[in-house]
Structure formats: C-alpha cells, structure tokens
Amino acid sequence: MSPRLAQDPFAPPRPSKRLRSWVLALLAHATPLVALVWNITPPVAVEQAAVEAELWSDTFVQAAPRAAAVVPPPAPAPTPAPAPEPEPEPEPVPLPPPPPPAPPKPTQQELQSQRDAEIALQERKKQEAELKKQRELEAQKAKDKAEREKAEKAKRDKEKAEEARKEKLEQEKRDKLEQQKRDKAEQEKKERLEKEKREKAEKEKAAKDKAAKDKAAKEKAEKEKAEKAKADAEKKAADDKRRKEQAAQEAKAAKELERMRQENLKAMAGLAGGSGGTGSAEKSSGPNGGKGTGGGTAGHSAGYGARVAAKVKPNIVYPDVVSGNPRAEVRVRAAPDGTITSVQLVKSSGNKAWDDAVVRALHKTETLPKDTNGTVPSEFNFGFRPQD
C-alpha cells in the first residue's frame, strides 16, 4: 500500500497478521474446490467482476453511491426481406445509438479494494499454480515410482522366470541322468540275470550230458563186461566142450591105435621069418610147409595144406605191420568129422602177437576141410607166414 493511501483517514484499519493467515488458509483450501467446480462446469461467458469493499472509520461516513451498471445498447431490429415486386424503396439509414453515459470515476477506496482483490487473485492463482505444479510433481513422482516398481517387478519376475527355467532345465537334466543310470542298471541287471540263467542252463545241460555220457559209458561198460563175460563163458564152455571132445577123441584114437597095434602085432607074429614094425609116414605139403603125421594111418594129399591155409587165413586178424615174414608153426588135432579139438604152438615166429593171431584164427575156423579122399587127418602141423 502506498504511503499516500496509508495516510488516508477513510481507509479501513489494517487487519492483524492472524486474520491474514486465516484468510490465506481458507483461500488455499477453497481454491482446489473452486478449480474443480470450474473444470466441471465452466462459465459460458466471463462477466465483469464486481468489486465490493467495506470501509471502516472512527466516525460515521455516508457511503458512496453504487456505480450504475452499464447497460448495453439494444440490438438493431432485423431488416425485413424485400418483396419481389414491386421493387422496394430504399430503406432509411438508421441513426447511430447514443453513446453510453460515462461511468462515474471510482473513488480511492474502490481503487484500493480493486488492487487488493487483484493481488489476492494473483496470489491465489500463484498458489493454485504452485499447488498444481506440486501435485503434478507428486503425480509424476508417483508415476515414476510406479513405473520403477513395475520395471523392477518385471525384472524380478523375468529373473525369477529365468531362474525357474534354468532350475527346470537342471532338474530335467538331473532326472534324465538318473533315468539313464536306472536304465543302465536295469539293463546290466537284466544282462547279468540272462547270463546267469544261460550259464546255469549250460551247466545243467553239461551236467545232464555228462550224466547221460557217464550213464551210456557205464551201460556200455556193463554191456561190454556182460558180453565179455558171456563170450568168456561161451569160450570156456566151448573150450571145455572141445577139451572133452578132444579127450574123448584122443581116447578113442588111442584105443583105435592100440587096437590096430594089437592087430599089427598079431599079424606080424603070425608071419614066419618076417620082420616089421610100426608104420609111419611124414610128408610136407602146402606153401607153408605144413607137416602131417599119423600113427599107422595113410598120409594126406599134396594140396591139403593149401586148402587149410585158404580156410584159416581169412580169420587171421592182425592189423599191425610185421617186419619180415616170420613163420609160426602150430599143431592141430581134429576129430574125424574135421572139428578142431586142440591147437598148440610148436614153433614161435618171434612175434607173440602174430602167434596169437594164428592160434585165434584156427579156433575161429573150428573145422578143417576134408582131404581128397574124404578124410581129415587127426593131427597135422601147419606153418603160417604174414606175406604168404
């Protein structure tokens, strides 16, 4: 307030600082409400603000008259449309409206009140602008904070999702390794069981084969033993039979020889002045030099030894190779029907295996062939060589 106005006796008393603070507080609280209402329903037209002020004085003073409101001139009447016919007459030019009356000159108090109101309005606008700016700053801060929090949350969510993905991959990898280990262990177990089963089957088969082989070998041995025992028994029985027959034949031959000897003795005793003795004959025959002897009996033919060799040799079984051509000589006694009663080795060839083969062949032959005269010598020596 200027010094001139401060010295004006008609000016109202200066309000205290406390009242000014309350006024400013009310203005600060009312300003947002007014701004809100103003934004919702803005005025159609801004009218000229009327300023009112109260003046205080120690003495009673008549108030100045209220300024008359300025009335705007009336709008001119609309011009009627001209008629088409006849042509209208030219309209008279309207007179300009009278100028409005000059408003009364405001008093010093009105000017001061108007200035105070303008100052208060500017202060209010300034406060509103600062409040709006502060709110915008706070809103921007809140928005920035929300965006930061949103970005941080998105970052955390992304990191968490990445960690979850990595953990899932690691878990899948671990699960896969564990599954591979389980599959490998299961496969090894399966192969081990199959191997054990196969080895067990092979062992059982080997045991069965061995048992069957042992059984077959045992049965074969028992069979061979039984066959050998049977063959030995048959051979023994045959030998006993041959010995008995040979003994009987020898006894018969001895008896016959004795009878013939007695007859020869009687015949010789009846011959007067004669002399004689027992007759004997020896003759070699056959390619092997077989020699036959007989007491007072007639000799065999020249080819009899070859006939005996032809029958006996097929029965000689001797697989070994004999060095040289050794000769084994045997003495054979036979019954009158040709049955061999005994075989005796009289001269060894020096090879016992060959000697035994010749003796076995004669036993296997069993009978001697008859001579050309239909008889069989009772005793006959044969010689056999491997190469003959």
How would you explain this protein's 3D organization?
- Residues 71-106 have a biased composition (Pro residues).
- GO terms for molecular function: toxin transmembrane transporter activity.
- This is Cell envelope integrity protein TolA.
- There is one protein chain.
- This protein is an alpha+beta fold and 388 residues long.
- It has a domain at 282-384: Fusion Protein Consisting Of Minor Coat Protein, Glycine Rich Linker, Tola, And A His Tag, Chain: A, Domain 2 (2-Layer Sandwich).
- It contains five helices and five strands.
- The chain has a five-stranded antiparallel sheet, with helices on both faces.
- The chain is rod-shaped, with a radius of gyration of 85 Å.
- 10% of the residues are buried.
- Mean pLDDT is 74; it is low at 1-6, 44-49 and 271-298.
Give the topology, please.
Layout: H1 3-6, H2 17-40, H3 108-270, E1 280-285, E2 290-295, H4 304-312, E3 328-334, E4 340-347, H5 352-365, E5 379-384
Antiparallel strand pairs: 1-2, 2-5, 3-4, 3-5
Biased composition (Basic and acidic residues): 113-264
Organism: Comamonas aquatica
GO molecular function, one term: toxin transmembrane transporter activity
